[in-house]
Write a structure and sequence with these properties.
Order of helices and strands: HEEEHEEHE
Number of helices: 3
CATH architecture: Roll
Helix content: 25-40%
Strand order of the largest sheet: 1-2-3-6-5-4
Shape: globular
């Protein structure tokens, strides 16, 4: 059972504005930059994330029904700021952990307490290096 929607509303209105700027620079945290699918407005959402191979995996403690998740899925991607770098990502896929997903032990322990088992996986877009001058 994901975290109650009341907590999500509180975080969106108050807590995210306080911790968002700090979290995007810490290892294991970041900010998702996305555009509203109805309003077209730009939004940022602080998230907990980790690497799984080449992919970036974002925890979904409120479940996949959050507006920001719907926005990313509808757009087919977004940008993520983590450790001071902004990365374009694509191919969003929501999946449920069956207990075998490789993730940091602390992340697994925290998520198990709130029974959060759903994640969003995204693949970084490879940017081609500029052509060398001759």
């Amino acid at each position: 059972m994901p975290i109650d929607r009341k907590v999500a509303r509180f975080n969106r209105r108050f807590a995210n504005h306080l911790v968002g700027p700090l979290f995007s620079r810490l290892p294991g945290f970041g900010k998702v930059h996305h555009r509203g699918r109805k309003s077209g407005r730009e939004f940022t959402t602080p998230v907990k994330l980790f690497r799984r191979g080449a992919d970036i995996v974002i925890t979904l403690p409120y479940g996949p029904g959050s507006d920001w998740v719907k926005n990313v899925l509808a757009a087919g991607g977004c940008e993520i700021t983590t450790r001071g770098r902004r990365i374009q990502v694509t191919g969003p896929v929501v999946f449920t952990d069956d207990g075998t997903t490789k993730m940091p032990a602390l992340t697994r322990r925290i998520l198990s307490r709130v029974e959060a088992t759903e994640f969003l996986a995204l693949t970084p877009v490879r940017t081609s290096a500029p052509a060398a001058r001759r």
